[in-house]
Design goal:
There is one protein chain. The chain has seven helices and no strands. With 144 residues, the chain is mainly alpha-helical. The chain has two domains: 1-69, no CATH class; 93-142, no CATH class. The chain crosses the membrane at residues 12-30, 42-65. Keywords: Membrane, Transmembrane, Transmembrane helix.
């Protein structure tokens, strides 16, 4: 009897620790990765807080993972997004400028030395490049 209770308690603690260490928001809402700020999702915050009830370290790690991934925030309409545009025909600077000009509704020039054009192999790589570029750094720092 005592051994059954001990096994059950060990399994429960192990299960909660695994969930807490991985970050609840990251597991529940992986599509939210990369959000910079917003309103905190109370469900994710409470789920991470459960880790604090058992041990301090798993709860703190869960919060750190979710804040660093941005998965603790509720989705918002004003978050950055990436549009996927497909080029028909040959890939050159002129066709890319025309495509971007049509999308932006104003003239776009890619001849500036400040413009860097790279082909990404997947969406995750493109999102990482956007995050590293600091596009929304001023907005994010203003809310701190």
């Amino acid at each position: 009897m005592q051994q059954t209770v001990r096994r059950w308690a060990t399994g429960a603690v192990l299960g909660v620790s695994i969930v807490a260490l991985s970050g609840c928001g990251t597991m529940f809402h992986p599509e939210r990765k990369g959000q910079l700020s917003g309103q905190i999702d109370p469900v994710v915050a409470v789920a991470n807080g459960v880790g604090l009830l058992f041990f301090i370290v798993p709860g703190v790690i869960a919060y750190a993972v979710d804040f660093s991934n941005g998965t603790i925030y509720l989705p918002s309409n004003n978050s950055a997004s990436i549009d996927v545009l497909h080029l028909d025909g040959e890939l050159n600077v002129a066709s890319l400028e025309k495509l971007l000009s049509d999308k932006a509704g104003q003239p776009v020039s890619l001849e500036s030395e400040l413009v860097k054009i790279e082909e990404m192999t997947n969406l995750e790589e493109a999102l990482a490049m956007v995050r590293m570029s600091g596009v929304l750094d001023e907005e994010r720092l203003a809310t701190m």
